[in-house]
Write a structure and sequence with these properties.
The complex is a heterodimer of chains A (815) and B (103).
Chain A lengths: L4 E6 L3 H12 L2 H4 E7 L5 E2 L4 H5 L9 E3 L1 H6 L3 E4 L3 E5 L4 E4 L4 E3 L2 E4 L3 E3 L18 E3 L3 H11 L4 E5 L3 H11 L4 E5 L12 H13 L2 E4 L4 E5 L6 E4 L4 E3 L2 E4 L3 E3 L2 H5 L8 E3 L4 E2 L2 E6 L4 E3 L7 H15 L14 E6 L2 E7 L9 E7 L4 E8 L2 E8 L5 H10 L8 H4 L4 H6 L9 E3 L4 E2 H9 L5 H8 L9 H11 L21 H10 L5 H8 L6 H15 L12 H5 L2 E2 L5 E3 L10 H13 L4 E4 L5 E6 L4 H8 L11 E6 L2 H4 L7 H12 L8 E6 L13 E6 L3 E6 L2 E2 L3 E2 L2 E6 L2 H18 L6 H8 L1 H8 L7 H13 L20 E3 L1 E2 L1
Parallel strand pairs in A: 1-2, 1-9, 2-5, 9-22, 11-18, 12-13, 12-18, 13-14, 20-23, 35-36, 36-37
Antiparallel strand pairs in A: 3-4, 6-7, 7-8, 10-19, 15-16, 16-17, 21-22, 24-25, 25-28, 26-27, 27-28, 29-30, 31-32, 32-34, 33-34, 37-38, 38-41, 39-40
Helix pairs in contact in A: 1-9, 13-15, 23-24, 24-27
Chain B lengths: L2 E7 L8 E6 L2 E7 L5 E5 L13 E3 L2 E3 L6 E3 L5 E3 L6 E2 L1 E3 L4 E6 L1
Antiparallel strand pairs in B: 1-11, 2-3, 3-4, 4-9, 5-6, 6-7, 7-8, 10-11
């Protein structure tokens, strides 16, 4: 093995240390003996987070990237607290401030930059020392000194309205003084913002109690022995007891200049980040000038470090740093901002897309050349920043619809444009059916919605895309849509709409599903119609209904929810979500005894035991000794509650008690769709009562608002206010009356959100609250009868309704 | 070899429903329709292995409980879905027992 080369790094900031890490990750420890010379007396830290140290939200120790131990672990010699004074390129020796001469084979200069201080009088005391109260904002020590001094300070000034100046001002605000920001230019952050956005940012800053002065050139720092104020070129004066100068950076290039390297704004490099004068000297970070540009943001520094490491280790001799496109997304004193590239059009033909909303402080501007993004500003709303920065970085061609670049176009518009969408657009997200499959199906001759749905399965999952499927079918038919009478039927297998079907059932006294097929469908049983008929008959006949179990879905036959592995889930009823140690113990015992693979808290404040074998269901129910939670049925499921008045500091009404009362009254009530209710003890709505089928919300004055038709599943809808009542009994009364009206008038599987929207809240209020049709008493009586007829289905554990009701697998014998 | 298996009384399967049987290690779904017929098929749906015996039955049409694929039980043909199912000869003997024939 050839002896290791000597690698010396001057400068222990972020860029230098990161570059060493990149070199180590390419096997650099085997190739180099590494020495690091750092002026600051500690390891390197994340300068970006300095303002957090200033405002106290992070401690200095938290922002170190590489603590001292890291150097030991990697066999790196760290000379901390000394500076490199000279480079002898002939002999390849670096001389440090403590007189040591360090020999190198390869040298990396990462001396970074220092604050740029504009020329002004009064920065120093007559003896040449720094005037107390004048600060730069650059190092951890600066932060600590600024924070200390600010404690006794009434008014502070920051000179410089760039990013770092704003950060410094933000840090100072948290220490109490009145803060004034002095900026030479006509608007803030003029390198990243245009005039409009700069002005908007100023407004936002002023709302945060930051005083902004623009077009102000500072001439003099006043005060004999310490800062007393600032005098400006326009003759004005500002009294203040400290001033922080943050006017940008000035690259540290003296050592490079001293050894004859080419220096312009910074040390000039080639595409491998080497000095153009010396192949053994690399330059990285803020002291490097590459293709005319000097970078101060981290991303370009990281990239430079990678290219340098690739090249110096021989990993990739052809590595090239192509320069960086500058894009950044950040938060300045609570304001979201993303900027990239140029701020104004540069050439004739450059296109500008712009949105301004002064009221909310939102500004979006894009500059486009030849269909590609070359610049952008997003202020106050950076939702689209990620995709725009990506498009900017990669130079991808932008979509024709420029508005979609600035905003997420909502689903309503997307639905409207489904016929214009590309062929491969997925229309049905449940079954994964794309647009072309639906169109092809229509072209093959199926010209009704139902036929297309049956064939493609589009719209047969959650159903939320059904409208789009219909739209596509109509469009693909070119007006040749065939009439599909079955869409008016209550169930597909009986050619009658709901009112006519109810009349026929009542006239002919049909009390079972099989008798309906016999008398109204020529004896032809349609399995897809059974459940809908069962639901309707139960509502019409109540306790006189002849309950044929084969008309039920498997879940309703075994009172549990079938799972993908053919096991079942068991959710016992926990009234109002309030349980007890005893209940929990029993649930735990059942989980142990039956080896339940998953016990899960449900969204409805209950406990789900998943993976129960069908044969075990009766035993599980017996051991639980709790009633069914009906978590499998088109029925009243649960009433979610918050803690209400018992413990909550904000509770206005006893939502827990009310929720329990609601659940005890309506448990298991069959209905066209499932019913999920909630009660909230105050308008904070912790139990989400506004998006429930029925929600009761306690308001000041001991009253309850009742909302109906809310939803927060595949469809999201805020419930409509039905009425405001005084007592728990009234809540139960109007809830029951509404539910009965819904049971009688909704289509099968139509949830309350669809029903309320279809019928209209005014009409429902007229009937349910005002009794405009004179049926209130009857509705109350009907719902009472249904409540009285409630039987816990889990009692079938001991009294099965059918033979082998819970049998998993039966045994066959050789005959 | 053709072997006949006795699956017990037809009343072991509630009218209009199906039940799953283990016949010499083979899983078979057997259905007793309200139309008076008995049908036997493979136990699991070819789509996602739904238990066909737990499906909804109407005449000779079965709907899988998992994702509503539909099958014609006389032939095993898929009415809705991409894949047919296997059917087996089955009948009632004089005592009302379900007799399944496996080849």
């Amino acid at each position: 093995m050839s002896p290791k080369q000597k690698l010396v790094l001057i400068g222990n900031g972020m860029a230098g240390a990161r570059t060493i890490e990149e070199i180590l990750s390419r096997g650099g420890a085997e190739m180099f003996d590494i020495t690091v010379i750092g002026a600051e007396p500690h390891g390197n830290y994340n300068r970006i987070l300095l303002s957090n140290v200033l405002n106290g939200s992070q401690r200095a120790s938290e922002i170190f990237l590489n603590p001292l131990g890291w150097y030991d672990e990697n066999d790196i010699r760290l000379k901390a607290g000394v500076t490199a004074d000279a480079i002898d390129r002939e002999l390849r020796i670096v001389t440090t401030s403590d007189g040591e001469q360090i020999v190198y084979d390869k040298l990396i200069i990462a001396t970074g930059s220092r604050p740029f201080v504009p020329r002004m009088d009064g920065l120093k005391l007559p003896d040449g020392s720094d005037k107390p109260g004048v600060f730069l904002f650059r190092t951890i020590e600066d932060c600590e000194r600024i924070a200390d001094y600010a404690q006794g300070c009434k008014r502070a000034a920051v000179i410089g309205g760039g990013l770092l100046g704003l950060e410094a001002a933000k840090g100072l605000l948290s220490h109490g003084p009145e803060v004034h920001l002095i900026h030479l230019m006509p608007w803030l952050m003029e390198n990243q913002l245009d005039e409009t956005s700069g002005a908007m940012l100023r407004k936002s800053m002023e709302k945060m109690e930051l005083n902004v002065h623009l077009n102000k050139s500072t001439r003099c720092v006043m005060g004999e022995d310490r800062v007393k104020g600032l005098a400006f070129a326009d003759g004005e004066v500002l009294d203040c007891c400290m001033v922080v100068i943050s006017c940008g950076i000035s690259p540290n290039v003296e050592i490079a200049r001293g050894c004859g390297l080419t220096v312009e704004r910074a040390i000039v490099t080639d595409d491998q980040m080497r000095s153009i004068d010396d192949p053994n000297i690399y330059v990285v970070g803020e002291c490097a000038q590459h293709r005319g540009k000097v970078y101060g943001l981290v991303a370009p520094l990281w990239h430079q470090g990678q290219v340098l490491a690739d090249h110096i280790t021989g990993r990739n001799q052809n590595a090239v740093y192509p320069g960086s496109k500058l894009a950044t997304k950040l938060k300045i004193i609570g304001v979201d901002l993303a900027t990239m590239g140029v701020t104004e059009p540069q050439e004739e033909g450059d296109e500008v897309v712009q949105f301004v909303e002064h009221r909310n402080g939102r500004y979006k501007k894009l500059i486009i050349r030849d269909g590609r993004l070359i610049g952008g500003i997003l202020l106050g709303d950076t939702d689209k920043a990620a995709s725009l920065i990506q498009a900017f970085d990669r130079g991808t061609v932008l979509p024709e619809d420029r508005a979609s670049l600035l905003f997420d176009i909502g689903p309503a518009t997307r639905q409207g444009s489904i016929v214009e969408a590309p062929d491969e657009t997925q229309v049905c997200n449940c079954n994964g059916v794309c647009k072309s499959a639906i169109v092809d199906c229509v072209k093959s001759g199926r010209k009704t919605l139902k036929m297309v749905m049956d064939k493609t399965r589009a719209g047969t999952g959650c159903g939320s895309c059904k409208k789009q499927v219909q739209e596509l079918v109509e469009w693909a038919c070119d007006g040749q849509l065939e009439d599909d009478p079955s869409i008016h039927y209550y169930v597909p297998g009986i050619p009658l709409n709901k009112p006519d079907l109810i009349c026929a059932i009542q006239d002919q006294q049909l009390r079972s599903v099989s008798s309906v097929f016999e008398c109204l469908a020529g004896g032809i049983e349609d399995p897809g119609s059974k459940m809908g008929l069962a639901s309707l008959l139960k509502t019409i006949w109540g306790s006189e209904y002849v309950d044929e179990r084969d008309a039920r879905f498997i879940n309703d036959r075994v009172h549990a929810n079938i799972q993908k592995d053919r096991t079942f889930s068991v959710i016992p009823r926990i009234y109002g979500g309030v349980t007890s140690a005893d209940q929990l113990r029993r649930i735990a015992d059942v989980a142990d005894k039956y080896d339940v693979p998953m016990v899960k808290i449900t969204g409805g404040q209950r406990i789900d035991l998943l993976g129960i074998k069908k044969d075990d269901l009766p035993n599980v129910w017996r051991d639980l000794d709790m009633p069914s939670g009906h978590a499998y049925a088109k029925a009243f499921r649960t009433c979610k509650t918050c803690v209400g008045t018992d413990f909550c500091r904000y509770g206005l009404g006893d939502s827990t008690l009310l929720g329990t009362q609601i659940e005890r009254r309506f448990q298991g009530l069959e209905s066209p769709g499932k019913l999920k209710l909630a009660t909230a003890g105050c308008p904070r709505n912790c139990s989400e009562a506004l998006v429930k089928d029925v929600g009761a919300v306690a308001v000041e004055g001991g009253r309850w608002e009742i909302y109906v038709g809310g939803a927060a599943g595949s469809h999201v809808r805020k419930g409509d206010l039905l009425c405001v009542v005084d007592t728990h009994d009234d809540v139960l009364l109007y809830t029951g009356r509404f539910l009965q009206y819904y049971r009688e008038n909704a289509k099968y599987l139509e949830r309350t959100y669809g029903f309320v929207e279809r019928v209209g809240i005014e009409k429902i209020r007229d009937v349910v609250v005002e009794d405009s049709e004179g049926i209130a008493a009857r509705l109350d009586a009907e719902i009472q009868a249904s409540v009285d007829a409630y039987v816990d289905p889990w009692l079938e554990a001991d009294r099965p309704h059918t033979t082998n009701q819970f049998a998993g697998v039966l045994l066959g014998m050789t005959a | 070899m053709i072997v006949r298996h006795n699956l017990g009384s037809a009343f072991g399967i509630p009218i209009g429903e199906g039940r799953e049987f283990d016949v010499e290690g083979i899983r078979i779904a057997v259905f007793r329709s309200r139309n008076g017929s008995i049908y036997a098929t493979q136990a699991l749906c070819p789509h996602k292995e739904g238990s066909l015996a737990d499906g909804l039955l109407g005449g000779s049409t079965l709907v899988c409980p998992f994702h509503a694929w539909r099958f014609e039980l006389k032939t095993g043909q898929a009415i809705q879905g991409d894949c047919d199912i296997k059917t087996f000869p089955v009948e009632l003997d004089d005592n009302g027992n379900v007799i399944l024939t496996l080849a």
